[in-house]
Amino acid sequence: MALNQFVIFTLLDEKFAIDIMKVDEIIRMMEITPIPKANYFIEGIINLRGKVIPVIDLKKKLGLEETEYTKTTRIIVVNIRNKKIGVIVDSVDEVVRIDDNKIEDAPAVSSGIDDNFVTGVAKTDKGLIIIIDIEKVFSEEETDSLSNF
Questions:
Q1: Which of 60, 102, 124, 131 would suit a FRET pair with 95, their CA atoms being 20 to 30 Å apart?
Q2: 3 to each of 97, 100, 102, how far by Cα in Å?
Q3: Is this structure's pTM higher than 0.70?
Q4: Distance CA 13, CA 119 (A)
């Protein structure tokens, strides 16, 4: 039985998880410099300890309803195809270990997000958690265009 570690975060009252191995760090919301003519889901860029990192709004990217940023809004810095990308989420809850046997194949999820991103659904004592493959959220073209910043 394998244990996987995930970062659990919230988007519009739904719980999502991404593999902790894809996560570099989690930071508080900060000033984001907008980029003219960028894709609709790209909020802009941030300077994180001297590195320029593109930041995307995960709700926009997944086609979910947009909401205002709050004091719980966080940026999860993920590593996708060797590129650092900041992903804005409503809040980060915790890091959890989930047994493989607690993860089921994803049924057609009603959350309105693309099923291709969803790798499974975990049943936990805190409810269902939708596990997404953060690499599949971005096409290679999108990742390449994000590395131009």
A1: 60
A2: 6, 6, 10
A3: yes
A4: 19
d(CA 102, CA 3): 10
What would the two tokens of residue 145 be? 């265009």
**DSSP helix/strand/coil, 134:** helix
**Using CB atoms within 10 A of its CB, is residue 29 exposed (0-12), middle (13-18) or buried (19+)?**
middle
End-to-end, the C-alpha distance of the chain in Å comes to 41
For strand 83-89 and strand 51-57, is the pairing parallel, antiparallel, or unpaired? parallel
Tens of pLDDT along 96-146?
999 888 888 876 555 555 667 888 999 888 889 999 999 999 888 888 887
Task: Please name the residue that has the structure tokens 């508080």.
Answer: 28
How far apart, in whole angstroms, are the C-alpha atoms of residue 142 and residue 147?
A: 9
The chain-wide mean pLDDT, for the chain, equals: 90
- Identify the helix (H) or strand (E) that includes residue 141: helix 140-146
The three-state secondary structure class of 73 is coil
CA distance 136 to 117: 5
Element (H, E) at 106: none
pLDDT at 77: 97
- The reported pLDDT for the residue numbered 123 is 87
